User: Fold this.
Amino acid sequence: MTGENTMTRLVRPITMTASLVLGLSLVGCETTEDPHPLQSPSDAVQPPLDTVTIPTSSYTGPTEDEAMSAATALLAPESTGDMDVARFRGATARLERLLVDDPNNSDTVYLALALLHARYAPPEAFSSPADGGTPATLDDGNLREPVERAVALLEKSIAANPTNLASLRLFAFLMENLDDERAVQSWQRLVELQPDHIEGLNRLGEGLLLLKRYGQAERVGAQALAVATDRSNEEEAGRARNVLGRAYLQTGRYDLAEKMFKDAAVRTDGSHWGCAYQSLGQLYATLGDLESSEQEVHTSDRSHLDALVLYESGKLDEALSSIETALQSTDRVEYWTLRGLFLLDLSRPEDAKQSFETAASSTPAAAGPRLGLAELAIRESRHAEAEEQVHQALKAWKERSLSKSGLPRYHQLIHRLACDLHGRLHITRQDAGLAEPAPERVALARAICGMNLQNR
Assistant:
């Protein structure tokens, strides 16, 4: 047998099975941060999270809800739902007359006009491009022109009353689709007026991350987490932990980032938050890049990396030889697992089983050998046993601190295998008309397999 082997490899890209079967797109969690942050840790020393105090607001004006209610009350006569062009223009004209009749209330009127444009304006109310092309849209799919008009109206509202919290919030929110810098400035102004504005703090932190101001994002994230924890607001606490985790990730503090992402990922009711898992995926992909770029590595580690490269290139015999070289100097559960995976693809299931059992005997909770044994169980139609092995492997994979465990590229491979096996078992259940596993098991697999650990 030659070093080149063209048979289909056991571990396929996750998009081949699990992501398509389970619908694992994590819409709304995308970032434009550097996907491979290889920076040194920040020199700035931040206070421990448990020492962060919540500033007291000195603002005494109308609340955000009061300001928004006053503006929406001005829209009520128009019955804004399903507004046509004539009603939109009539409402605009009426509100513009109010600016003349009641100038002391202009900030509220301008806010009402902005809401009219941003939320209720029919697309037909805005002219098409002169060339007959498609009107410009924003990243969220909304027409650009009404949003830009709403922003201009909000600028007038804020100029008339710089402390109108509802105008500041809506302006910041709309600017996130237009100008990250100005959005950050607006969220900053809002939290200056109301330091415990939890949404403002989290969105400010997210904006600072996009602007690569990681030290500031960390401070704001800590503030947001303190407020959310004080209010027992689990959803916003998760977002704050995600901000902190991404700040830690971008500054090279990978163990802290992993803890934050994992704390954010699973809520007390057992549900899973996909955005935190996506952030975990970025962390683990980054660790894989770091491992691959490391120049000074032990011989056994170098051999295991070489084995993975050979395996992913389809050179199965050479991959097996390389991992056996690594085992001669270091007896590790990961190396025995890799040996078993390579042997499976070389059609040597009995030898593969022996490798997986050797690995499992030394570390029974390890994910890798469980997955190898699950693959063997599937091949022998022992699907219930395979289901249990895969579930326990996913649990072990989630609970382990991979930022400290080393061998991140090995864990990328195991992640792909776990999710591929889960997808295949899902298809088998569907074909046989069998019921799905318990909801918490489905949720765990959906969240973990939504993580993208591939080199990007």
Notes: The radius of gyration is 27 Å.
